Amino acid sequence: MKRYSTGFTLIELVVVIIILGVLAVTAAPKFINLQDDARAATHQGFTGALSSSIKLAHATWEVRKSSADPASVGNGGYLDYNGVRIGFWGVSGYPECENGCTLNGGIANAGGCNGGIPKLLDDSVTFLDTYNTAAFPPAGGDCVFTDKENENLKIRYSAVNGKVKACADATSCTALLSSSTPGNF
Question: Where are the transmembrane segments (predicted)?
């Protein structure tokens, strides 16, 4: 009667470990890039949402501008928009800020880039948790929203012409920020 051994030999175990190691080395980069891919998809989603919100706010201004509260400083007025008092620049009709700013097409205040513009979005809290906000150039003009974890994900918005454009790498971000003229990007 022959006796069969149960279990694996050392060579079989080493071969299995090597195969698992090779699989892990080839699969790990795919899983690591999933986080970057998710962040890029979120960035595209926010860009589209912001662009749509800007267009909808502009259309609201065009329909309701005759009933807007006039601006105390600048050209335009204020409308209640989704529960927020938004200032619209009268020359272009695009949203510029939250209540109480100078409506001149040159966003340069806290009520603009990190106030009224994000509040046009349904999920402004998540947007502001995801992006740093700043006027561009620093003296004012457009808004630039920069992802807090990836500096190469930016969105630029201009109240001069309602343009919203995004970048997702160093080269396209350099191009996006190359003009300091509001609306010229």
Answer: 7-28
Cα(169)–Cα(11) distance, rounded to whole angstroms? 47
HSE at residue 151, side-chain half, CA atoms within 13 A, is 4
What's the pLDDT tens digit per position in 111-151? Answer: 688 888 999 999 999 999 999 998 888 877 899 999 999 99
Nearest to 149 by CA among 36, 28, 33: 36
Instruction: Tell me if the bond preceding 182 is cis, omega within 30° of 0.
Output: no
Dihedral-angle region of residue 83 (phi above 0 means left; psi in -120 to 50 means alpha; beta otherwise):
left
Identify which of 104, 96, 46 has the alpha carbon closest to the alpha carbon of residue 73. Answer: 104
Determine contact, residues 128/118, Cβ cutoff 8 Å.
yes
Order the strands of the 164-167 sheet from edge to edge. 131-136, 142-147, 154-158, 164-167
Q: What single DSSP character describes residue 103?
A: B
Quote the strand ranges of the chain, DSSP E: 69-70, 76-81, 84-89, 95-98, 131-136, 142-147, 154-158, 164-167
